[in-house]
Structures are given as C-alpha cells and as structure tokens.
Amino acid sequence: MFTAASVARCRLDHEFVIYPAPRNKLKERPNCLVRARVRGREDEWTGLMRSAMAGDDAAYHRLLKAITPVLRAAARRGLARAGQPPDQAEDIVQEILLAVHLKRHTWDSEAPFAPWLFAIGRNKLIDALRRRGKRVFVNIDDFAETLPGEVPQETASAAEVAAQLGTLPQRQRDVLQSVAVEAASIKDTAAKFSMSEGAVRVALHRGLAALTAKLRDH
Amino acid sequence: MDTDQLIRSLAADNAHRAPRVGAVLAMALLVAAPFSILFFATFLGVRADVMSAMHNPFFDMKFAVTLSLAIPAIIISLHLSRPEALLRGWAWLLLLPVGLLAVAIGSEAMMAPAMPMTMRLMGKNSRICLVAIPAMSLPLLAGALFGLRHGAPSSPALAGALAGLVSAGLAATLYASHCTDDSPLFVATWYTLATALVTAIGALVGSKVLRF
C-alpha cells in the first residue's frame, strides 16, 4: 500500500536517518542515547585538548586522530550537499586540521572543545566550496550532528597539501618530510640534517604555517 | 602526504606556543600609535585653549564618546577572534557611544545654546575632521588588522569592521583634543561620518586579510 502520503513520510524518515533531528520528540529515546554518546565523545575531546595545551603531545595526537573521522564525515556530507564528489573531502579535512593546529591558542580552555572545532570546520568547508565556485549551502549541523557510528575510516588521497609541500623552501620541506612521512623524531631529524633541535622545531612550525597560508590563498 | 602523516607532524609541533590574540593586538596597536601621534603632532596639535576647554563638559564629552567606542570595539573584536563566537549578546556595547551622544545632544538642546543648531552642526572643522580622523586611523587600522590576523574570526568582514571602529575611536580621541567644535551635534555628524568611512575600509580589507 504505497499511497502518496506514505511515500512522502518514508522520504521524511529517510531524511531523518541522514540528518538526525535531535528535536524530534517521537524518537526521544534513541536520540537521547545518541546524544549522550556524542556528549561523552565531546567531553573526552575537551579533556584531551586541555592535556595537549598543557604539553602532552600524545594526548594531542590522540585528539587529532579522534576528530579526523568526524571531520571527514561532515566534509563528505557538505560536499554531497553542494553536489560535489566526495573525493575532495580529505583535502578539506587536512585544511581543517592545519587550522585547528595553528589557531588552537584561540580556544578557551574553560570552554568545550567541540563548538570551537566545528566552527573552524564550517569555515573551512565554506571556504573550500567557495573556492570551487560552488553555491555554498552548509548546514549548520553538518559538523555537530556526525554520529559516533558514522565514521568513514578509509583515507582518500589528499592532493593539495602534497602539491603545496613541493613549493616550500627546501629546509622546511625536508623537515616536514622527515617528521611526517618518515615518522622521525625531532631529535633524529636534527641529527639527520645536522641542525639543532630548536632549528628543526622552527622549520617544522614555519613549514606548517606556510602550508596553511598557501592552501588558503591558492 | 596522507592525513595520518599530517597529524604526526602537527603533534610534533605541539610544543609551539602562540601568544594570546589580545597580547598581539595590544603590541600591534602600541607599534602603530606613534605613527598616528606623529601625524597629529605634525599637522594638528592640541588646541590652544585646551586649559579652559577642559571646563566645558561638552569638550570632555567628546573623549567619553570616542573612548566608549574604542574600548568596547577592542573587547568585541577580541571576542570575535574566536571562531565560535557570535556578535549576539555583545553588539549592545556599541550602543554606548550612541547613548552618550544622545544624552549630550539632549542636554545641549536644554541649555539655551549660544549658536543656532545648523552652525553647531556644521562647525568650522568639518572638512579637517573628515580627513584627519581617517588619516590618523590608517596606521591604527593596519595595527588592529595585524593583531586580529592572529585570531580566527568566522566573519572576517565583521572582524575587519570592528578593527575599523577600534582605530577610528582611537584616532577620534586624538582628534578631539585638536578640534574646537565641541557641540555633540558636530560630533554626531562628522565624527560618525569619518568613523563610518574607516569602518567600511576595515570591513573591506578585513574580508581579505582576516581569513585564516
């Protein structure tokens, strides 16, 4: 029995699956559970970020790993809504991660981390869509509503960071390559290029900052 | 570079600590201020009758108005340097100079003023005002934009407009000590026009340079 009304309702229900509406009273219970999980996840992020800001590099690494699938899902959803293929999602994810890194001093450690993160994510998604000359329509909840179950794992290839990496000064590129791709420590990288550890740190930071600027302005 | 590799390099850079936006903004404004003061000292200077003018509440009121623009604008621009910040709940601070001006205009109207309204409004310095305030604003605007670049405003044009209000408010504070037109009507007209011009420039430039 597929009346027009039931088909319409089906479509509506389907939309709820894709964009869960927390305000949907009829589904109070499942949403409550999901929201509790989302809240737990976000509290964990805030704790990790506090540790990271206090100098815990491992906590920072864990945090970045934890937010990446959520950013990826949201970026894909935003691209899909703009009628764009999802294969550019990874570029957007990397741009968000760089912005998070370079602007983390604007996070107030008394405030929850997720709203700050999602605001940066939204900004970068809008920028990316604009740059591609697309009509920008970013749902305010694209980021906030990514559910814990919905986390694409596979890493699509990201082209833009890799391409801009080639335009960096030699020293910054070498250091970035060594730390990122070869997973060398700051200390080992310093030994390899006969630099001081301080110089390696400076080159690493400048390289990341330059990469971000190039991605923004290209 | 895949995302895991990028994350590795970000984590390796965790030791890097950037200063707070407020500290960078303060430094940038302090570096810019001498340029505006130099312009002021070269072309304008404090008005000759400043000692007697200080007894005129409408002279003093000009500083209250310009500073009640500059200081809230600094506070709001720092607030907006956080990406998740909204203007909502903060915009009323910008009504402070408007309210002060309204009170001043009202009290002047009740005081049987010495000159007719049109003369008070037009004053003698309107053209200088329209040039001097924007001119002295420009170094401060550059400083404010430089400082705010350290932040992450979600709306670069809005943040740029606030940088414009900061610099116009500070430049107008300098200019107020030169200008012999003390009527709140003059201030409400010409200072506002000059401020609007600087704010528009700030919004325009900010929309380009404050993207992060």
From TrEMBL, chain B:
Record carries keyword Transmembrane helix: yes
InterPro entries in the cross-refs: NrsF (IPR009495)
Keywords for this protein: Membrane, Transmembrane, Transmembrane helix
Top-level taxon of origin: Bacteria
Membrane-crossing segments per the record: 23-46, 58-78, 90-107, 128-148, 154-176, 188-206
Source species taxonomy: Bacteria, Pseudomonadati, Pseudomonadota, Alphaproteobacteria, Hyphomicrobiales
Keyword Hydrolase: no
Protein name (Swiss-Prot/TrEMBL): DUF1109 domain-containing protein
